[in-house]
């Protein structure tokens, strides 16, 4: 049991170190994937389009760097900026969303990349604290399992 807990502890420790060391690559990868999701965005209910819509609605953002990122997409030429960017769903018409100057007043202008990364970074202290707490419990479990094993081998209980 102590060896199993030690193995889990080491896996979590390695994952944390790798995440910390490669955090910049993770950000770059996220930005490129968000750009791809915008480029391939369509009105069908695929996972990437739903994820983009969810991020934009939840964080009140639009595009990767800003709302004008949509201008470079095929979706913009057909339907304009998506409804998920609208500040108020009642006040967004398709004509407004096809014109960037009109859309600027009706959609969120901030990009999602900065908001997602800043939200993740602000929550990292909470994640680190919880991870540290779990690691402490794992270490206590490892120590107690080793103590129990030592106690059992020292007393040589008789098998019944």
UniProtKB/TrEMBL annotation:
Record-given protein name: Tetraspanin-7
Signal peptide per UniProt: 1-19
Membrane topology per record: Multi-pass membrane protein
Xref: InterPro entries: Tetraspanin/Peripherin, Tetraspanin_EC2_sf, TSN6/7_LEL
GO cellular component, one term: plasma membrane
Alphabetically ordered keywords of this record: Glycoprotein, Membrane, Signal, Transmembrane, Transmembrane helix
Subcellular location: Membrane
TM segment ranges: 126-152
Protein function: May be involved in cell proliferation and cell motility.
């Amino acid at each position: 049991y102590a060896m199993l807990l030690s193995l889990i502890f080491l896996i979590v420790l390695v994952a944390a170190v790798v995440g910390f060391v490669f955090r910049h690559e993770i950000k770059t990868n996220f930005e490129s994937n968000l750009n791809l999701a915008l480029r391939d965005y369509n009105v069908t209910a695929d996972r990437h389009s739903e994820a983009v819509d969810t991020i934009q609605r939840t964080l009140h953002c639009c595009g990767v760097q800003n709302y004008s990122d949509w201008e470079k997409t095929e979706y913009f030429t057909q339907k304009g900026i998506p409804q998920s960017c609208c500040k108020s769903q009642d006040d967004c018409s398709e004509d407004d969303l096809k014109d960037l100057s009109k859309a600027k007043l009706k959609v969120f202008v901030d990009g999602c990349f900065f908001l997602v990364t800043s939200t993740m970074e602000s929550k990292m202290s909470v994640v680190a604290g919880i991870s540290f707490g779990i690691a402490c419990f794992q270490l206590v479990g490892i120590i107690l399992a080793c103590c129990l094993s030592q106690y059992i081998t020292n007393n040589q209980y008789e098998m019944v």
